[in-house]
Amino acid sequence: MTVLVVTGTGTEIGKTVVTAALAAAALAAGRSVAVLKPAQTGLLPGERGDADEVARLAGPVTAAELARFPDPLAPATAARRAGAPPVGPEDVAEAAAKLATEHDLVLVEGAGGLLVRFDDRGNTLAEAARLLDAPLLVVVPAALGALNATALTAEAARARGLELTGTLIGGWPEQPGLAERCNTEDLAEAAGAPLLGAVPWGAGSLSPEAFRAAAPKWLAPELGGRWDAARFRESWAAG
């Protein structure tokens, strides 16, 4: 089975749009795709969640969500405030494994960063990834501060025996500054894993048709695209 866990160095850094790009590229290659959002926070029943947004942008994927809590907080806290049972790593692993029997690719999109608590036992997305024996793709920001957050996330992942496929910039600015341009070189060293793409800032506002056509240009071949790290760095060479 093929399961990829999409996590990040924090919240609001583009994990959902990156997940949509991964799904779009896989669909374009003729693969069937499922997207699993273990815990959706900050939304009420009936509102569009992250998995729904992936389906809107990428196309015909199976969108699954295990639980939804109204407060925009970490899943464990949001579940406690809602008086609802939390999502445990076993729940995530079971759901993803079932989806993997029916799809070529399962994308599991976490909430916030890798070590955000899912339940009051202290379990996180990392425990679910370990149960699944699934690799991580870490979505990172491009700006100043990205290197420290990336290094910490990578260190936490490896301390738990997890495989880090690489990192991907979740929002590349239209006019990058010196820090962003230098980070195209330094992120790989900070993560100890390759930089595997860069999604332009605001890509989620594209029409679905434009998004699907462009998605492979944002992803490295390892992720089903044609993004070239060396060419990208050259085009934004730091002066």
UniProtKB/TrEMBL annotation:
Q: Which amino acid positions bind Mg(2+), per UniProt?
A: 16, 50, 109
Q: What class of enzyme is it?
A: ligase
Q: Under the GO molecular function aspect, what terms does this record hold?
A: dethiobiotin synthase activity
Q: Does the keyword Metal-binding apply?
A: yes
- Major subcellular location class: cytoplasm
- Positions binding substrate in this chain are 41
InterPro entries, per database record: DTB_synth_BioD, P-loop_NTPase
Query: Which Gene3D superfamilies is this protein grouped with?
Result: P-loop containing nucleotide triphosphate hydrolases
Print the keywords alphabetically: ATP-binding, Biotin biosynthesis, Cytoplasm, Ligase, Magnesium, Metal-binding, Nucleotide-binding
- Give the residues the record marks as binding ATP: 12-17, 50, 109-112, 200-202
**What is the E.C. number?**
6.3.3.3
Q: Which domain of life is it from?
A: Bacteria
Q: In the UniProt entry, which residues are flagged as the active site?
A: 37
Signal sequence coordinates: none
Its UniProt pathway annotation is:
Cofactor biosynthesis; biotin biosynthesis; biotin from 7,8-diaminononanoate: step 1/2
Keyword Transmembrane helix attributed: no
Q: What does this protein do?
A: Catalyzes a mechanistically unusual reaction, the ATP-dependent insertion of CO2 between the N7 and N8 nitrogen atoms of 7,8-diaminopelargonic acid (DAPA, also called 7,8-diammoniononanoate) to form a ureido ring.
Q: Quaternary arrangement and interactors, per the entry?
A: Homodimer.
As for family, the record states: Belongs to the dethiobiotin synthetase family.
Name of the protein in question? ATP-dependent dethiobiotin synthetase BioD
Recorded source organism is: Streptomyces rutgersensis
Q: Which gene encodes it?
A: bioD
